[in-house]
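Translate sequence into structure tokens.
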Amino acid sequence: MKKEYAGDERIRGMQSLNLIREFELQQMKDSEIIKEYSDKLLGIVNKVRLLGTYFSDCRIVEKILVTVPERYEASITTLEHTKDLSKIILAELINALQAQEQRRLMRQDRIFEGALPAKHQEYGKKKYFKKYQLSSNENTASNINQSKGRNSKRSYPPCQHCGRIGHPPFKCWKRPDAKCNKCNQLGYEAVICKNKFQI
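Result follows.
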């Protein structure tokens, strides 16, 4: 019986050493969250404890402090300044790191949500220009350079008010909401007013 028990103890000792080695080799991945990593460490530690080997929480705390990625550096620095790290409990450390993780995620969500409306905002003239930009097959470097220069008239479709090209409808002199400064008539601007020379 003693021999069987001694053999079992030797086997348990080897298993416990293998688990401790596995614990020491653990590193937190960038894709992991603190909950997943701490659960993985605690799973290994619980197996070691079931085999009858003493394993203190202090070792788990040290392991987490040493192996977490750089993004948790701010929380660890704060804990160093406010607490004695040799006396900090595991739950307190995990809660502090999770709080920073949640703040970071909320900040990223806010930045992402703020970026979407800015991308899709289009007002008046901007909307028109974006709608009638050069088509993708004409969008070569030479066409872009030409459109910025003298040949920019090509980038507009025929005007819906006068039928001519070279200007957007909101700049057309014959648009229905235009009002002549000379004769106060609607439907055209003073530039093309027939009555502008009459006194």
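Note: The radius of gyration is 37 Å.
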